[in-house]
Amino acid sequence: MQRHKDLVKASAIEAFDVYFQESKDQERILEFVEAQLNCKSPKTRKIAKEFLEKWSKKRRNDSYR
What we know:
single chain; mainly alpha
């Protein structure tokens, strides 16, 4: 059962990626995604890591503008 929940979380992260830039809850999304770095599912961990690498870099670049 936990495995299925972890895969649902992976899908949620992929959905967050679509609208993250426009979201007013970016901090909450980042907290959720960061928590998945310790997930048992390798797929979910990988997607979380890629999400954070992508959006952390973009947020840093945007803060300099």
